[in-house]
What we know:
Layout: H1 3-12, H2 15-36, H3 40-55, H4 62-86, H5 90-106, H6 112-127, H7 135-162, H8 166-188, H9 196-222, H10 225-228, H11 233-254, H12 259-266, H13 271-295, H14 305-322, H15 329-350, H16 354-363, H17 379-384, H18 391-412, H19 420-429, H20 434-461, H21 465-482, H22 487-504, H23 509-533, H24 543-565, H25 572-597, H26 607-634, H27 641-661, H28 687-718, H29 722-732
Helix pairs in contact: 2-3, 2-7, 2-21, 3-4, 3-6, 3-7, 4-5, 4-6, 4-7, 5-6, 5-18, 6-19, 8-9, 8-11, 8-13, 9-11, 9-25, 11-15, 11-16, 11-26, 13-14, 13-15, 14-15, 18-19, 19-23, 20-22, 20-23, 21-22, 24-25, 24-26, 24-27, 25-26, 26-28, 27-28
Amino acid sequence: MNRKVRELQAFFYSQNFSDGIRITIGVLLPALLFSYLGQLQTGITISLGALGTSLADSPGPAVHRRNGMLVCIGVCTLAAVVTGFAHMHVVTLGLEIFLFSFLFSMLQVYGMRASLIGLAGLLVMILSMDRPMEPLQVLVHSLLVMAGGIWYLLLSLLSFKIMPYRAAQQALGECILEIARFIRIKASFYRHQPDLTGEYRKLVSQQILVSEKQDAVREILFKTRQIVQESTDTGRRLVMTFVDLVDLYEQVTAIHYDYATIQEKFGHTGILGQIATLIESLADELDNIGFAMQANLKHANQINFQEKTEQLKKDIDALSGQLEETSTLVLKKILVNIRTISQRLSDILSYYNADATRTAIQRHTKEYGLFVNRQNYSPRLFLDNLTFNSSIFRFSLRVALVSLFAYALTKLYPYGQHSYWVLLTVVVILKPAFSLTKQRNKERIIGTVVGGAIGLLILYLVRNETVQFLFMLLFMASFYSVQRINYVLSVTLMTPFMLILFSFLGGGSLAIVEERVVDTLVGCAIAFAATYFVFPNWESKQVRTFAKDVLAANLRYLQVLAGGLAGKAITEVQYKLARKEVYVKSANLSAAFQRMAAEPKSKQLNSQQVYEFVVLNHVLSSFIANVVSERMAGGSQVCSRAFLKPIRRAQISLSEAIRLIDPAYQVPEADLEKPETPAETAATLTGEDQLLNEQLEFIRKMCADIQKLTTEILEVKVKPSPSEKTQTAVSNS
């Protein structure tokens, strides 16, 4: 099947689409019902409460969604009450805007769901500023907002009650599809003359998406009691599929070698093209599994990987006879990795058999709770961030100051009847990172202009109000379905939906479009300027924190390898916790680098060195995964001092790199002790030992290079002279 068609089908089975339909029903139904009863304003107010509460209904465990929506109902009701009374005087409303903008933005310290609750409070505050109310009307308005929130809460809980596993299936399916895309990028390294720099950039970007999807699945699976208890075949199947999926992802990252050398040795033989084709077949099969998971369909293996791997083995063996002076051991290692991945795929497919799932669950007795992060909701966390050293505090203060400025500007220079759109644009556009605000600015402007043109065409060409309503319904459902995944498309869809809605309310269509475009441009300009000049938060100043986390995670991963080589018993949970930490921290660093790359050139300190640092750490974790997986598969065997020496040097290099960033960092001395094992000479090494020795030496060299790169990055970051700043800006340009 065409991949684009499959991606479109996957979207209609995705969690975003199902959430979009639910939000559309929750927000639109009250307005329609009360409009039919002749109380349109009442219905719109109830819909406002439902809209605010829907923001807290982001993907995650059902209990977290429920608790988040309950808190959101309280926040939205509070915002409606305070805004209604504060609106009685321009000064009190200005004070409320400043205070609420700061407090609600500070909720980011409690995670993504809390930040969305804060955004919901700001949304209700801004949309409640549109008209003055008497005290009794304020109370009625606030109760209606609360009623809308309760209505949406009940709707969301009902949908979960009817389909308790649907969200987990959709999240897991999306995770599988992202890993399939990651595999395709890995396959490209084996193609003829690959652009290694470009492919590494794609790999780093995709790694971020995979990490986000894995975290989302962990949250849903391991924090949902009904699933973790594994009382049903569906629950067992979901848990076991994810466990094997993470192991499969590790095998994919372990397929990492010196590609330039491999191309030089085997590029002319055609064997690398066969490997790439086989890896892409694995990605295709994973795509099929992911789609079946999203669509809640059964899937049978469509590709015979046993035949394909056997054929590849014969070709590698034949190549061994032709290249007498070149060892094909590295190709055989790649073949082993591919076989392991295909076996994981077979295991995942076997979980559709209930008996196989029960047997498998008895083999896996992991402490799943160790693999999910616990959010700290202590008030102390909020208070500790009330300092200029906190990026969230600087961002919140920026939002408060800029929101107050936008409000004052619309009061001094009013334009149109919906000047609050300027403030709404500022609140939605402003993000902690400059790059995200810059991207949102461009996408908001493009979406508003294009969406406005579409809305005008519909209003002028389609005179039938029933057809107009159907268009509005389509745009509304589409907007809520794509708002989390494509901002420019969501704005493009939202604009005609709003124009048609205002047309039903009696607004002039052309005047509304003009006003919306002007307000959007003004709001975007204010937000963009504020991100640059008001307490800016440049990623180059945050990189050292992410770099330290990645180095520490890779050091722990390396310590697991060192323990295995020394013959220590490494538990599966211990190993997988270290592995998960590497994936998460590497993704965080990669995301920070991508944000930095979108900032002004003058603010990108050492961008090339940071990119090399990101790639080297990715390659390092891949090589560690390669060696560790082989050691665990072969059982605990004590290696000689000749093997442990490069590992010890690698640990020292990483430790020194961390100390360059944080001098107070301490490494347990036990991790660096020399093993008491007999030495071996190079002459006694077997082919397997020789390859292991080469891999460990390569790990040692990478760690040494990482230490040097850390020194280079910190030298410019910590003590940049004016000439060095100029030189860096010129070289980056």
